[in-house]
Amino acid sequence: MNFDLSEDEEMLKALTERFVTDHYDHDSRRAFLSEPNGFSGTNWALLGELGLIAAPFPEDMGGLGLDATGIATVFEALGRGLVVEPLAEAVVLAGRLFAMTASDALRDEWLDALISGERRLALAHAEAGARDGSIWVETAAEARGDGFALNGAKPFSIAGGGADGYIVTARLSGAPGDADGIALFLVGADAPGLAARDWTAADGSRATALTLENVALGAEARLSGGLDAIARADELAGLARSAEALGIMQRLFDDTLDYLRTRDQFGAPLGSFQAIQHRMAEQYIAIEQSRALIDYALVSWGSADFARTVQGARAFIADASLKLGHEMIQFHGGMGVTDELAIGSGHKRLLVLSRWPESPLASLDRYAAALN
Q: What's the CA gap between 326 and 317, in Å, rounded?
């Protein structure tokens, strides 16, 4: 299925591919991951200048208003380049969530800086008591005077390293597993009572564990909505993650195909053996199935079916991408699991994408429930 890109989308696609070509190779990627926040601050500023950070934000808020087709196109290109800058986490999810839920006063204070890349937010929602995407919020928001006091822990703020603020879920009422009674709050990284400890995820990116002890917030720090707002923001973010995974799948497949054509074993190229050809054909089919499911989601953009189709694409791609990564490592042997090749690095990124925010099985359960 072919989708015609708008002039702006074609430009952003070209900019993304040029960014990857000019700034990324395997050695530079490893260097970016070793920086304090797990990515290049210089690259982040450049992404702001190129308009890639502004792309998912609505036009009436100063963004480019890129639709689902444009988002999928950009993130597939980012995936092929194994780009480590956290655009899906910090922009498509946290940034858009803020834009959707913040008051006019907070938007005036934060939005321009978020769109330009001068500031960055991260979502702090998952807690230790949650199991595979289930609802579990123990962090409490207690009304105090004209504001709130937050107490609790958020150990899994993805891409939280060096963030300027966090969108924190906290419970106003109810039990930890209740869907109702949860509110969103904007907490600045320098808020008294907030302690942040960065840790390294499997793909080398930085996540953050937050501890909140009597973090005092004014009433204006409360954002509108709750879990429903996160779900809406995660529809497009889920598409971005799946498109990134598709790009990585294609990159690992292409790299492995080149390797099989040039690596001799038993007096012939590895790729000449029929058993290997069949296994590569199976993975090619998996890539095309993944692409078709993303296309199916794009067709439903703007309709009530979009969330369901994105969930279905994610359920399939999260599982298929890991299987592809395992196969590509198998073909490379021991070198495939090292950081010396893009194969190992890409597989680690696929591992994180497949488990964030839930496992493929949990996504499949949600998709099945939506069908029923």
A: 14
Of 145-149, 261-265, 302-306, 360-364, the one with minimum mean pLDDT is: 261-265
Residue found under tokens 């109810």: 174
Is the peptide bond between 357 and the residue preceding it cis, with omega within 30 degrees of 0? yes
What value, to the nearest 5°, has the Cα angle with vertex 309 and ends 235 and 13? 65
pLDDT band at 272 (very low <50, low <70, confident <90, very high): low
The dihedral of CA 281, 286, 292, 298: what is its sign? negative
pLDDT in tens, 197-223: 999 999 999 999 999 999 999 999 999
Using CA atoms, how far apart are residues 212 and 3, in angstroms rounded to an integer?
46
User: Mind listing the domains of the chain with CATH numbers?
Assistant: 7-116 (1.10.540.10), 121-225 (2.40.110.10), 228-371 (1.20.140.10)
Strands (DSSP E) contained in 134-280 are 140-144, 147-158, 165-171, 182-188, 194-200, 206-218, 222-223, 264-265, 268-269
Query: What band does 248 get if pLDDT is binned at 50, 70 and 90?
Result: very high
